[in-house]
Specification:
It is an enzyme of class 5 (isomerase). It catalyses: aldehydo-D-ribose 5-phosphate = D-ribulose 5-phosphate. This protein is an alpha/beta fold. It is 27% helix and 27% strand. It is globular. 48% of the residues are buried. The protein binds ribulose-5-phosphate. The site of ribulose-5-phosphate (5RP) has 17 residues, from helix 2 and helix 4.
Length: 218
């Protein structure tokens, strides 16, 4: 089974976590795109969705799924999203698609975070995938210097502006043994909006597509 087939398989498995008559939190990325396509099959049984990016909003609307502003919703039952890396402790790196800040916000409002990945994303230690950090544009060079002090090699993601009008620094060569502490430390740098470590609020359920089917971890 190739990676795309695994993404589709795990996206379809996530439908089991979507309850009737609820508003679903929807992430961003190629795996989530498969999820949105699958969600369309039960669009008449849900109230709608809250989206974590303009790209997901567009895809949801193209399927005729109503998209609500997060500010009009008190709580979400479930948030479904992919990841760039995930550990057995359910800590993740996210933000490969530059949507990390809205993803973190929508995840915070959800009772349960269901992470959908193929098995290439499961790692023993986070950091092989460069850690995305969303930064206020005028703070880019300052934040890059501060990130270098933490031992990483920040690289400006050229040509990318986030949905919030900010820029992304991808921090290479990190070996993240204490993800919760590093998440807090990076977020404390002035000019950082947020970083792509999802450790303080990790996944509650991980659905992992393998050649032998979807494994569930919780
Ligand atoms: C976007 C994300 C995605 O969840 C992450 O990049 C995984 O994407 P894909 O499903 O395309 O591999 O965090 O900001």
């Amino acid at each position: 089974m190739n990676q795309d087939q695994k993404k589709q398989q795990v996206a379809e498995a996530a439908l089991a976590y979507v309850k009737d008559d609820t508003i679903v939190g929807v992430g961003t990325g190629s795996t989530v795109n498969y999820f949105i396509d699958a969600l369309a099959s039960k669009k008449d049984r849900i109230v709608g969705a809250v989206s974590s990016s303009e790209a997901s909003t567009l895809r949801l609307k193209q399927h005729g799924i109503e998209v609500f502003e997060l500010n009009s919703v008190d709580q979400l039952d479930v948030y479904i999203d992919g990841a760039d890396e995930i550990t057995e402790h359910m800590h993740m790196i996210k933000g490969g698609g530059a949507a990390l800040t809205r993803e973190k916000i929508v995840a915070a409002v959800a009772k349960s975070f269901v992470c959908i990945v193929d098995d290439s994303k499961l790692v023993p230690v986070l950091g092989h995938f460069p850690l995305p950090v969303e930064v206020i544009p005028m703070a880019r060079s300052y934040v890059a210097r501060e990130l270098a002090k933490l031992g990483g090699d920040p690289v400006y993601r050229q040509g990318v502006v986030t949905d919030n009008g900010n820029v992304i620094l991808d921090v290479h060569n990190l070996h993240i043994l204490e993800p919760m502490a590093l998440e807090a430390k990076i977020n404390a740098i002035v000019g950082v909006v947020t970083n792509g470590l999802f450790a303080q609020r990790g996944a509650d359920v991980a659905l992992i597509a393998t050649d032998n089917g979807v494994i569930t971890k919780q």
